[in-house]
Amino acid sequence: MLICPQCNFENPNSNKFCQNCGSSLTEKECQQCGVFLTLDSTQCHSCDAICSEIWLAIVIKEGNSEVVQAENQEKKVDCRNNLKDYQENSDSPEEITHQFEAGSYLDSQQRYKMLESLPTFFENAVNTEACVKVIDCQPYQVSPIDAMLANPQFSASSNNSVAENRISNLAKTYIALQAYCNLGIPPIHDAWQLGNMQVVLLEDRSDWLYLSELWESDATTSLQIIHYFYQMTQLWDVLKPHDCLQSLLDLSNLRIDEDQSLALQRLYPDVRKESKVSSQKSQDDTSTITPTVKDLGQVWQALFRESQRTQFGSLLELMGNLDSGEITTSEELRSHLELISTELQAESNQSELNPQINSPENLIFADEQENSSPTVLQLDDLEQSPTKIDDTPTVVLPMQLASLENAGLTDVGKQRDHNEDYFGIETKINKVELPKSKVAGAKGLYILCDGMGGHAGGEVASELAVSTLRKYFQENWKSDVLPSEEVIREGVFQANQAIHNVNQQDARSGVGRMGTTLVLVLVQNTRLAVAHVGDSRLYRVTRKGGLEQITVDHEVGQREISRGVEPSIAYSRPDAYQLTQALGPRDNNFIAPEVQFLEIAEDSLFLLTSDGLSDNDLLEKHWQTNLLSLISSAANLEKGVRDLIDLANRYNGHDNITAVLMRAKVRPNLDGSSE
Predict the structure, then answer these.
(1) pTM of the full predicted structure?
(2) pLDDT digits over 438-458, tens only?
(3) DSSP readout, 239-299?
(4) What percentage of the chain's residues is helix, strand, coil (to nearest 5)?
(5) Running DSSP on this structure, what letter comes out for residue 619?
(6) Distance from first CA to last CA of the chain, Å, rounded?
(7) What string of DSSP letters covers 504-565?
(8) What is the pLDDT of residues 98-115, one digit of tens each?
């Protein structure tokens, strides 16, 4: 099955073009210059941009005994041969040869091309492993692992009897831990086992910053150190049931992602020790050497030792308690880290030189403030994971804005002869870049309106609303804090009154009265205010939270649901999608704009959209392919918003389409700088 990169439509393997939208399934488009390339191209021949996602292949060779080969042949352990999207592979393990050179293929289906050669000794070696970077030459083909994870009978348990025969033990561990990718576990792309060789393909993190490099930076504060130690204790509890604690004990395996969170480059199984009692070598005759939190403390010591950084008082005492065995569990360790964090806050608050650093308003425990926003240390999403680590309070770090970018586009659609949508974007960004830090102070105004009233009606109302609000906030938002709820509501009322006055002056009546919906976003650094009237929406997308609809439509169906009516009954009404509020048709007594305030606590993508894009749950169905990747700084927002318009025209197209994207990148505010 081939998944179209443009519309996400499922096509048969034999298709050369998507049967839904006509896009090529044999070429890919360079995201930088738009040139079409072959699927196995690594670099664009026109602009030299990297145009393929690179994967890290872990290749493991086990003992090459006749028994192992016979068992593997009987089970047909290559998972590809047992999935319906792959043709039967007639080659036996003995017949398959691998060249192990750059440019050759790692698999018999010639899907994964090697970008570098494996060590020369590897082909004839046993009980060894190597890593090699590869590209997927069939990127539109669903991988067997993705197919399994999407199928409940596979994803429900890594011990599924069918999965047992198709997936290697190493791959099953990654699959079992996919629910914890938000904690730094690398996502798995593909895996197979053939003969005495098993391969696992992971996200390539080899170029990510080492945690040890962060330790060497003078900009890394004591509070940030506690932050990473705390993350390691939570990963400890995730890895322990799977005997992969060794993953945290290798400094070269500890990386930092673009959100400044801890991440693992790969998983390392804990060491197995052969039993001295039995003379036969089997898995039953081995035992796992389980690391202890004392071993974790030695890794922390190594971080300080290699960076030549001095340990501070409370942490030095903690290290001593770990080494002496006074602390034996991760729960005890977390409790001590929380106490140290509290002490750091108290010391900072007493500082006469900079009383704002880590003040109670900026750094708190999550259970001490009901409405605190989660950050890199507050892992509320663990409550929705298969198991919850513990119930202890988690440390919340203040965040500061690193960058703010935006893009907007409107389109008439496929059926309308004129466009009644209108949008406006105004941003003021003050960037401060230093060798060891980058901070952005930003103020942004984003407005989207979907007009109604026909020619010289809807488009007039939507444009008038945008211009009125722009002028209003230029005059009433001059400070470096967000306007109050009352000030924002007054701006919406003025826009409504401006349109209402035109209706009155022109003596418009009934359906001839023009109006518009409104979704309004104001950004001040990491704080955000939202106001809306009608059914234009604001969505938020984050890596940890996925897609979230921030606004609730002002329409009859939603009104009935708020009154306790079942959704299926509420939306069976013929007037279910009729608006209950809009700007312009009536005076201010008949509108009640909703205003809410949000905190940007992690890298986020915000989308303002008219119903031409949001209708028919289009975003809910396609956000993973059309929105999630746009969180990355490498993604082009201009192209992203064009793709959203194209998506709406393919699946909706019955109305005007407008989309405004805003990408906010944040980082921990560890130097006490004020927002």
Answers:
(1) 0.61
(2) 556 899 999 999 999 876 689
(3) HGGGT-GGGGS-GGGEEE-TTS-EEESS--PPPEEE-SS-SS--GGGEEE----HHHHHHH
(4) 35, 25, 40
(5) H
(6) 49
(7) HHTT--GGGS-EE-EEEEEEETTEEEEEEESS-EEEEEETTTEEEE-S---BHHHHHHHTT-
(8) 467 888 888 888 899 999
